[in-house]
Design brief:
The protein is of the alpha/beta class. The protein folds into two domains: 155 residues, Medium-chain alcohol dehydrogenases, catalytic domain (Quinone Oxidoreductase, Chain A, domain 1, Alpha-Beta Complex); 138 residues, Quinone Oxidoreductase, Chain A, domain 1 (Alpha-Beta Complex). The chain is built from twelve helices and 15 strands. The strands form three sheets. Strands 3, 4, 5, 6, 7, 14 and 15 form a seven-stranded mixed β-sheet that branches. The radius of gyration is 20 Å and the shape is globular.
């Protein structure tokens, strides 16, 4: 099969190659998906560069997200799944072959039915961004009637988080870095977009919440934003942390103690079975109701994978970068 791969860590144009590799066969309980699209995430870029993990296998076909059609099933998987349109999660997590290829083999549960109303480009956006957003927003229960602050509300995860929180009945505030991103977040459902480069985030949050603060923060970089918590979080509020920007995050300990706040870290790759089941069900319901838009910033062919990695690495895409697998 045709695939993109790398055999050492390094810059995208230096290490990413295209070529023919063996087509995998499904084992018991597995399916083989003919991929139509592959989603590029920041974690994929960091893994290729060797930032968050070094080479775990001699050759890596990157990317955990993608969408396509089941075209072969292993023993124990019903034939009724043949021809099913699906989206993929954890495609390249703890395995060498991800979605930047014509085919992927993985456990049947990791190929989730994709509604006919959603294209394969949208399906390639779901895995890491949408599952992360759902867990961050809904992982501690309903947000109905609550105030939620989404850090980076125009990003791939933030865009989904804004929609999920709004659909859940929350009042949604989002931080952004400029007018274009503010418009993007508001279009997704944010009640207010706060430009953290030109506004005092804490003061603006307090103004918008009558001085109380928000009940929940969806945090993309606790390393950079921990200092903001006293200004934005209500007593007994919760911070759901899905990302870090450095080795240490100095929390404002007195505030956290006396306000009895909860700071929860989670890794989307390692959700519990119950958490993932709930997230997939919730995402599926919102898609069925037509309440989940997918922000596809760019669609490139597989042979431009290095360019796609650079777009993500340099933050040049407002939304998801998707590769088509011809």
């Amino acid at each position: 099969m045709r695939a993109a791969f790398y055999e050492q860590n390094g810059a995208a144009r230096a290490v990413l190659r295209l070529g023919e590799i063996a087509t995998p066969e499904p084992g018991p309980g597995e399916v083989r998906v003919r991929l139509a699209t592959s989603g590029v995430n920041p974690s994929d870029v960091k893994s290729r560069a060797g930032i968050n993990r070094k080479m775990a296998f001699p050759r890596v076909v990157p990317h955990s997200d993608g969408a396509g059609t089941i075209e072969r099933v292993g023993v124990g998987v019903p034939d009724s799944r043949l021809g099913e349109r699906v989206w993929i999660w954890n495609g390249q997590w703890k395995r060498p072959l991800g979605t930047a290829a014509e085919y992927i083999v993985l456990p049947a549960a990791q190929a989730v039915p994709l509604p006919v109303s959603v294209g394969f480009d949208g399906g390639a956006c779901l895995g890491i961004p949408a599952l992360t957003a759902w867990q961050a927003v809904m992982g501690d229960g309903s947000v109905a009637g609550k105030a939620v602050l989404v850090a980076g509300g125009a990003g791939a995860v933030g865009h989904y988080a804004v929609q999920i929180a709004k659909a859940g009945g929350a009042r949604v505030l989002a931080t952004v870095s400029g007018p274009e991103k503010a418009a993007h977040a508001v279009a997704a459902g944010a009640d207010h977009a706060i430009n953290y480069r030109s506004e005092d985030v804490g003061a603006r949050v307090r103004e918008l919440t009558g001085g109380r603060g928000v009940d929940r923060v969806v945090e993309m970089d606790i390393t950079a934003n921990a200092r903001l918590l006293p200004g934005v979080l209500a007593p007994r509020g919760t911070v759901a942390v899905y990302g870090i920007g450095g080795p240490e995050a100095p929390l404002p300990a007195p505030f956290c103690l006396f306000a009895a706040v909860t700071v929860k870290f989670f890794l989307v790759y390692d959700l519990s079975d119950a958490e993932r089941t709930a997230a997939i069900a919730g995402i599926d319901r919102l898609m069925a109701e037509g309440r989940l838009a997918h922000a596809v910033a760019a669609v490139l062919p597989l042979d431009r994978i290095a360019e796609a990695h650079e777009m993500v690495e340099q933050g040049r895409a407002m939304g998801n970068v998707v590769l088509t697998i011809a």
